[in-house]
Amino acid sequence: MRTLLLTLCLSLLSLPVLAQHDVREYKVLATSKTSTMEKEMNAAAEAGFAFAAVMGGETAFGGNETVVVMQRSPKRSYMSYKLLAANKTGTIQKEIRAAADLGFHYAGQTVFTSLFGGDEVVVIMERDGDDPKPTEDYLLIATSKTSTLAKELTEAGVEGYQAIAMTVGATALGGQELVVLARRDRK
After folding, report:
1. Cα dihedral sign for 144, 150, 152, 157?
2. Which of 71, 72, 78, 116 has the most C-beta neighbours closer than 10 Å?
3. CB-based burial of residue 21 (10 Å sphere; 0-12 exposed, 13-18 middle, 19+ buried)?
4. What is the spatial distance between Cα 33 and Cα 84, in angstroms, rounded to a whole number?
């Protein structure tokens, strides 16, 4: 009986310790400049935080900003980040490919109005410090017509691409466009 009572007491004492294993910490980053956001995200990553979510738009006190939520879980992360921003789809496509060649993978995207660049598509790419090899190819599809989007997505699907994100934004050449990012395993 004493052994049973002692076991019960010890197991009750260990419950708070077990519950702490799933505790997550959060950091909210907000800025109107993508270069500043990239620096802040990489500083948070050095402290063990990883990307969780992104939103671009008007905030109550900051005006037009990119807002990023970073989280730190008990399993420490060793990520690094690149923020790619452009109002020309050809430019952002080249930047995504170059980042993928360095082992970065898609993490999130948004559209926001910057102080200098107007409306920009912002793509967040992340790289695992433990496994930085390139494994994926990316394709950006931008069009103002849904029928064209359907056709181009079908063609991309034949090549093995899978749609992973979509935003609507004003780009320099096409005006209001549907912007879809697709990826496939690198061959």
Report:
1. positive
2. 72
3. exposed
4. 11
Indicate whether this model's pTM tops 0.70: yes
Residue boundaries of the structural domains of the chain: 24-185
Strands (E), the chain: 25-31, 50-59, 63-72, 79-86, 105-114, 118-128, 136-143, 162-171, 175-185
Distance CA 2, CA 30 (A): 57
Return the structure tokens found at 90: 């050809």
Name the token pair of 141.
Answer: 């599809």
In the chain, the percentage of residues whose pLDDT exceeds 90 is 50
Map tokens 């109107």 to a residue: 32
As a whole number of angstroms, the distance between CA 109 and CA 65 comes to 13
| Distance from C-alpha of 141 to C-alpha of 159, rounded to nearest angstrom | 14
Phi first, then psi: give them for residue 161, nearest 5 degrees. Answer: -80, 145
